[in-house]
């Protein structure tokens, strides 16, 4: 593939709109009777989000999106990029229950994961004219920083590290630009966690070959933090990194001095409203959230390549049905919107509220 760009991989590219999410939004809007709310909802169709490849069965869809983006590029003379989330590690979401995945380490999960990566890579190879940007394995390495006391996480440590390294190597070999997931300010931003996080991310970067296609880290994926808060949310008490910009400004230099010249992308898809959580560890379907800052390259920071929407607003974080196999108590908390369907499935009432509470307004 072409040599990696040294600068911002988003520059000069049109971001492909996921037909999967557009269809979800179209269907959601059709169920909204209030005319002005419906009109606002339909605007979300035109906002680029990341497409989550959360099961191996979806890897074929990547080829469809790339073919479509390639055709649009040829027809328009524009260069297109497709935004994906790689999200299928064995024993996935090891410290929680809501997003447990299809592969288990005990049942050949590490080999299955390699097959999953190989299938994504095979699709990318077919369309060298389309740029691909990947967020790699939300929550995985962050769990290795703070949750090795959870037996499922300590048991998954080797599989997570080897899996992420394999993913980075294979994706870089076909020219995919990767941003490794780095949790958020309320997870790894605490002073006790920051150093160990920087060490782990730098180690993984170097172990995977320090490819220039591995651009850096993605923060606040599927979370609600402000990029830059006008005043600290009370839940941040005790953590000087009260927003994502502070977290990034603290983490970036530590990574650079550890040999990882990382830049960042920041999820703002559900960050429009602050002061909505009882505590910072509350992550599931938080009530009162709104669509946040629109995706842009005008980030205000030389460390931040792009503000992005990674978690597609409206797709659920986890079921509130306490009898469900994947029920996580965080989805039953006072600040969690209930009743909620299974993780990844459409949560209509939540989507309508994201539209209502959008800041900036839709
Ligand atoms: O006062 N002090 O000095 C002090 C010092 C340290 C303290 O400890 C810190 O407390 C933090 C919470 O405040 C913890 O952060 C939470 O960790 C959870 C995982 O364990 C994350 O959950 C994930 O969230 C993802 C979406 O983001 C979901 O996709 C995923 O399914 C889900 O599992 C929460 O976001 C994240 O906010 C830290 O671990 C913990 O170390 C606390 C106080
Ligand atoms: Mg999740």
Describe the structure.
With about 350 residues, the protein is α/β, with parallel strands linked by helices. The protein has helices at about 20-30, 35-45, 60-75, 110-125, 140-145, 150-175, 190-205, 245-255, 350-355; strands spanning about 15, 50-55, 80-85, 130-135, 175-180, 215-220, 265, 305-310. Strands 1, 2, 3, 4, 5, 6, 7 and 8 form an 8-stranded parallel beta sheet that branches. Strand 3 (about 80-85), helix 4 (about 110-125) and strand 4 (about 130-135) form a beta-alpha-beta unit. The relative contact order is 0.13. Bound molecules: ligand RCB and magnesium ion. Magnesium ion binds near residues 222 and 317.
Instruction: Decide which structural class fits the backbone.
Output: alpha/beta
Q: How far is the N terminus from the C terminus? A: 39 Å
Uncertain runs are none
User: How does the major sheet shape up?
Assistant: 8 strands, parallel
Tally of contiguous helical segments: 9
Taking all Cα atoms into account, the compactness measure Rg is: 19 Å
Strand content: 5-15%
Hetero groups? ligand RCB, magnesium ion
- SSE string: EHHEHEHEHHEHEHEEH
């Amino acid at each position: 593939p072409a040599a990696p760009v040294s600068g911002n991989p988003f520059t000069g590219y049109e971001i492909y709109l996921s037909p999967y999410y557009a269809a979800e939004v179209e269907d959601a809007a059709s169920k909204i009777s209030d005319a002005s709310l419906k009109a606002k909802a339909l605007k979300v169709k035109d906002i680029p989000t990341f497409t989550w490849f959360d099961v191996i069965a979806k890897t074929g869809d990547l080829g469809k999106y790339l073919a479509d983006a390639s055709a649009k590029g040829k027809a328009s003379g524009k260069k297109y990029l497709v935004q994906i989330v790689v999200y299928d590690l064995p024993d996935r979401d090891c410290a929680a229950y809501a997003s447990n995945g299809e592969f288990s380490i005990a049942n050949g999960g590490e080999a299955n994961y390699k097959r999953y990566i190989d299938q994504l890579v095979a699709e990318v190879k077919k369309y060298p004219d389309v740029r691909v940007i990947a967020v790699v394995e939300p929550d995985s390495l962050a769990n290795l920083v703070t949750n090795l006391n959870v037996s499922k996480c300590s048991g998954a440590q080797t599989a997570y590290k080897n899996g992420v390294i394999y993913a980075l190597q294979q994706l870089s070999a076909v020219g995919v630009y990767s941003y490794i997931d780095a949790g958020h300010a309320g997870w790894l931003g605490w002073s006790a966690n920051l150093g160990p996080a920087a060490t782990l991310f730098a180690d993984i970067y170097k172990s995977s070959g320090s490819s220039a296609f591995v651009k850096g880290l993605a923060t606040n994926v599927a979370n609600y933090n402000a990029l830059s808060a006008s005043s600290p949310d009370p839940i941040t008490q005790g953590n000087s990194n009260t927003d994502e910009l502070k977290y990034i400004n603290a983490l970036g230099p530590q990574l650079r001095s550890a040999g990882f010249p990382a830049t960042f992308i920041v999820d703002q898809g559900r960050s429009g409203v602050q002061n909505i959580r009882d505590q910072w560890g509350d992550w599931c379907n938080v009530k009162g959230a709104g669509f946040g800052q629109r995706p842009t390259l005008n980030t205000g920071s030389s460390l931040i390549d792009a503000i992005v929407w990674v978690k597609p607003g409206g797709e659920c974080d986890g079921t509130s049905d306490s009898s469900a196999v994947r029920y996580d108590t965080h989805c039953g908390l006072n600040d969690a919107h209930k009743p909620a369907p299974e993780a990844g499935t459409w949560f209509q009432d939540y989507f309508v509220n994201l539209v209502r509470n959008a800041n900036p307004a839709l």
